[in-house]
Amino acid sequence: MINNIWFVIKEKKAEFIRVLIWEMIHGVFVSAPLGIVMVIIWELFKEFPNYQVIWSVVAMMTVMLLVQFYFASKSMVKSNEFSFELSNWLRLKIGNHLQRMSMGYFKKRDPGDIASVVLQDVSNFENIFAHAIPNIASAIFGTFTLSIFLFWFDWRLAICLIVAIPLVYPLIWISNYLVNKFGQKHVKARNKTGSSFLEYVQGIRHLKAFGQTGARFKSLDQALLELKKQSIKVEAIPGPIVLTASVVFEIFFLLSIALGLYYFQGGSLDLQVWIAFLILGYALYQPLKVLTVEYVILRYMNVSLSRIRELLESPIQNDESKPLPTSFPIEFKNVHFGYDERSVLNDISFTASQNTMTALVGASGSGKTTICSLLARFWDVDKGQITIGGIDIRSISMDHFYQLFSEVFQDVYLFDDSIYNNVKVGKPNATDKEVEKVLNKAQCMEFISKLPEGWHTKVGESGSKLSGGQKQRISIARAMLKDAPIVLLDEATASLDPENEIYIQRAIQELIKTKTVVVIAHKLATIQEADQILALKEGKIAERGTHEELLNQRGYYAKLWNTQQNASGWKFNGQNEKSKV
Question: Where would you find the membrane-spanning parts of this chain (predicted)?
Answer without folding.
Answer: 20-41, 53-72, 128-149, 155-179, 241-265, 271-298
